Amino acid sequence: MRLLVLLAFVASPALATPADYRLDPDRSEVTFTYAYGSDDVTGQIPVVSADMRLDLDAIGGSAVRVTLDATGARGGFVFATQALRGPTMFDVEEFPSIVYESAGFTRTGAGVEVDGQLTIRGVTRPMRMTAELYRQAGTEPGDRDHMAIVLTGAIDRHEFGVSGWQREVGPEVTFRILAYLDRIP
Asked: Which CATH architecture has domain 5-9+20-183?
């Protein structure tokens, strides 16, 4: 059972300062959803790297940088995958990576807002994501060594020059990231 963010923020003397975390890529996933005609389609993008420093007692001291592999993006079905990687969308020949780098963290009632910069096709724009932090299943209350984070956010793809297939694909793309993290000793 996942426990909400508040349990993870209980003060712990063992982690009174920022801690570095390693992403478990085998269990983590980055998905995105877009409108294709009247249907919602979900695709995936593999994570290349993730540098994470979290300060759970003073969340503003946290920093995250995640790099995604645009060349491995899957659009939900074969035609969409080919189009997504092509020159009018991600243009993976020219821009093989997508990068999100945090600029600030703000605690909210049930989670954290993460303001950052998203770079797609060499275009960088602000993006706000909402984060909820959970203990991983099977861990003890107060355990901050093994956590799961769910991040959600949305962009207008046209702001990044991802403008192909305008009649078929809607402008809004929502992201959902499920990240399993283990504290680096």
From this structure: Beta Barrel (2.40)
